[in-house]
Amino acid sequence: MPARTHTPTTHPATGGVEVRLPWWAVALPALAFAALLLLIVGTGEAHAVTTDPAVTRLLARIAALVTGRQ
User: How confident is the chain (70 residues) per 10-residue block, as mean pLDDT?
Assistant: First the structure.
């Protein structure tokens, strides 16, 4: 006995596809994009951090001891 094959029913084209997304599926990528954009734009205001003179002197002294200079 032959097996029946299921033939899908075809619906006429309605002119568009309806896709329903939850609100967070649109909001989260938009929020992530905005955060990354702010990080990129805000990097122009970065300033170098000044080091403590004591740390600089300590590193110079260690370098002098390692190289054998006094």
Answer: 66 71 91 89 68 78 80
Sign of CA dihedral 26, 30, 33, 39: negative
Q: Distance (Å, rounded) from C-alpha 63 to C-alpha 55?
A: 12
Question: Measured between alpha carbons, how far is residue 37 from residues 6, 27, 29, 46 in Å?
Answer: 51, 15, 12, 16
Residues in the chain, total:
70
Distance CA 61, CA 17 (A): 73
pTM: 0.38
Q: What CA–CA distance (Å, rounded) separates 32 from 36?
A: 6
Q: How far apart are CA 24 and CA 38, in angstroms?
A: 20
Please report which helix (H) or strand (E) contains residue 59, including its range: helix 53-67
